Amino acid sequence: QLQLQESGPGLVTPSETLSLTCTVSGDSVSDGSSNWGWIRQPPGKGLEWIASVHYRGSTWYNPSLKSRVTISMDTSKNHFSLQLSSVTAADTALYFCTRERDFGDYEAFDLWGLGTRVTVSS
Amino acid sequence: QSVLTQPPSVSGAPGQRVTISCTGTGSNIGTGYDVHWYQQFSGAAPKLLIHGNNIRPAGIPDRFSGSKSGTAATLAITGLQADDEADYYCQSYDNRLSGYVFGSGTTVTVL
Questions:
Q1: Which of A85, A91, A120, B24 has the fewest CB atoms within 10 Å, measured from its CB?
Q2: What per-residue confidence (pLDDT) applies to A1?
Q3: Residue A5: what pLDDT?
């Protein structure tokens, strides 16, 4: 069954680096027809795209977060990861990993993990 | 503040038709980028509801439909059911921001 599963610490200290991993099962991150990425949702608020990665190495970042974000992929483990540095309380959110399927003329987020809640607090 | 504007809430009685607007600008919807819609139940992950402006993924009832015109898109739900109570988000690409953008989200309430 196709699944995405986020993992990582639920609590991060301000100014530290948040690290999350998304493990993919039932599909290969190397299949080439999809990008893989991260979207977050602060409590009670809307969705914000963070970053996407393709197995060939291409990456795309939300310009508002680009200076603090790194997305990477490990095809041997069939997972991809997010690092967000210098976190503040504003980074407290539910973080989703997603599959960004290529439909030809566009991409859309057709598969989502359940999400992992991250709180930034000392 | 979201790049794409949606009404905070819409409501309707069971069986009625409701619509949710998603208004963008010339750097996103208006320049031709496709619009996608997601449904999110409370405490759950979003689910792709409509892609490519008006295409339903397998398993999505035909009560849900999408359209796009100019700088705006619309999601319509016909035959409203209690199970449709959720938050709905539109999404597109913005070439000025060089990234994906989401709408502010709309809560659908079934009266």
A1: A85
A2: 84
A3: 97
